[in-house]
Design goal:
Layout lengths: L16 H4 L4 H14 L7 H8 L3 H13 L3 E4 L2 E4 L2 H11 L2 H17 L2 E8 L2 E8 L14 E2 L5 H9 L5 H8 L12 H14 L2 E4 L6 E9 L5 E10 L8 H18 L8
Antiparallel strand pairs: 1-2, 3-4, 3-8, 4-5, 6-7, 7-8
Helix pairs in contact: 3-4, 6-10, 7-9
Length: 273
């Protein structure tokens, strides 16, 4: 299956005017509800969903009843959460992602070379979707699992997409997402993110320097498709005790080499920032 079917482009949120007349409003609202629940693992009550999305409460309850019956949502203690059927659907979607299959041997090789957890992410709805993880041999790991959606502003893979796919939309993303300070090191302002984007493009890799979780450092590099578009980000996650600042150049070389090799497998002749 061509990877382009799975890739979210910066303009994919805006449907062509000709297609809008075929949209089913409440089906779209159901999709919006599922996306919002995906950003709130602790669940939300129907009133919060209705208020945040601008949908009548009665309509929200009818949608949630339908999603619950289909296994796409569940109710726990008065709060709605994502349902178990989505796990099956998500696994099926991941299994059909071409770049994931190409990346698995490279992730394993990168983990062997660095002794740390390697991961692959693709852009999804203005976030970074983790689609594959190769765990390190260390018993304590901080890497996200496949299916996790990471914010763009505070994750290494997300910063790759900010720098290459959303560079011209930084102001819109910051105003709509309103970055929150997850740790004292988190970058939250437009000026900070602009500097980070330029630095990332200049050096050819991104760095999450304890910005998502304290004590965890991540580094990622872009993966290019045959047309030169960044279609994925490949990186590593490690404890700051093992992945010290002094090791950043060494780790960057290894991650960039793996990302370059994957880019070549995707048909890209030359990977460059």
């Amino acid at each position: 299956m061509p990877f382009s079917q799975h890739r979210t482009t910066p303009t994919s949120r805006v449907a062509p005017a000709a297609a809008e007349r075929y949209v089913i409003p409440n089906l779209r609202n159901a999709c919006r509800i599922l996306k919002m629940l995906g950003r709130h693992p602790d669940g939300l009550i129907a009133a919060d969903l209705a208020r945040n999305l601008g949908i009548p409460v009665t309509t929200t309850l009818r949608i949630m009843t339908t999603l619950h019956l289909e296994g796409l949502a569940r109710k726990a203690g008065g709060r709605y959460e994502l349902g178990p059927m989505l796990i099956q659907l998500g696994n099926a979607a991941l299994a059909g992602t071409e770049i994931r299959e190409q990346a698995l041997p490279l992730l394993q090789k990168l983990t062997t070379a660095t002794d740390e957890t390697a991961h692959l992410a693709i852009p999804c709805d203005d976030r970074a979707l983790i689609v594959a993880v190769q765990d390190s041999p260390h018993p304590l790991r901080a890497a996200s699992r496949p299916g996790f959606l990471a914010d763009l502003y505070c994750s290494s893979t997300g910063k790759i997409f900010l720098s290459w796919l959303h560079r011209d939309r930084l102001a819109d993303i910051v105003s709509s997402e309103r970055p929150s300070r997850r740790t004292p090191a988190t970058l939250t302002t437009l000026s900070e993110l602009k500097r980070e984007v330029e630095l990332t493009r200049k050096r050819g890799f991104s760095l999450d320097n304890e910005e998502f979780n304290l004590g965890v450092r991540c580094l990622a590099a872009p993966v290019f498709s045959s047309d030169g578009t960044v279609t994925a980000a490949l990186g590593i996650t490690a404890s700051t005790m093992r992945f010290t600042k002094e090791r950043i150049p060494e780790m960057a070389d290894k991650v960039r080499a793996a990302a370059s090799e994957l880019s070549q497998l995707m048909g890209h002749a030359e990977s460059r920032p």
